[in-house]
Amino acid sequence: MKHFLANAKNLSMTGLAVVTYEDLSEYTNEYDTNVEPDWQKDIKTESEIQSSVVEGVVALYGSYGKEHKYVMRCRDNTQIVRTHYNQYLSPQELGILVANAKEKTESLEEVSSVGLDNKTMDSVDDAIKFLITSGFTYGVDFSSHNAVDIALSLAPDTLSTLIAEKTMTLNECSECDASDHEWYEREEKIVVSCNCKSVEKEISFKGGLLTLTSSN
Asked: Which structural domain, as residue segments, surrounds residue 53?
């Protein structure tokens, strides 16, 4: 799903408050056209594969043996499809989230001005470059008022991709031999942990590229 609201769960209150009803309508259309049909299709495929695996195990080892029970437990605990699609809010859930955000602000005009006051024009320009490079269209998918918020909402997914592609590494600690550093997003920052410490990193988009800078 390419719509900028696909990452609505990561948007700040300010970012949600400036979402328009046109944005919600576009999201609903894309969700109903792409996400919902694919979800149902993948659930059916997952069920068919699970049934095939169970039938194969029963044919080889018989019913109710340890192999059969193990496979049944795996089947019952499988959440791959559900986890993937639960990252997208349903149009109803998104509508409630946006409505609550709007209620907590005095007016859309105030929200817009605060958004620009709190972020330098340089950071806005960098966020715009990042979003355009990521395939979003200025004036359609985002504006100068919500560019930084939307870019920040995309940061975790972008970071995961960069690490998988080995174009960015978080293994910076010289005090331990940890080969893999754990990380997570917290309050629009990235926290990186190893065997001996945790480092908080500021997220920015210098030159349109995701950049992490230690803040402690």
From this structure: 1-109
Non-local (6+) Cβ contacts of 101 within 8 A are 13, 14, 16, 17, 19
Same domain for 36 and 105, yes or no, is yes
């926290």: which residue's tokens?
191
pTM: 0.54
Based on the fold, state whether residues 29 and 95 are members of the same structural domain: yes
Quote the Cα angle for 155-160-162, to 5°: 90
If you count DSSP H runs as helices and E runs as strands, how many of each does the chain have, helices first?
Answer: 9, 4
Residue 32 has pLDDT above 90, yes or no: yes
CA distances from 208 to 123, 130, 213 (A): 9, 4, 15
End-to-end CA distance of the chain: 35
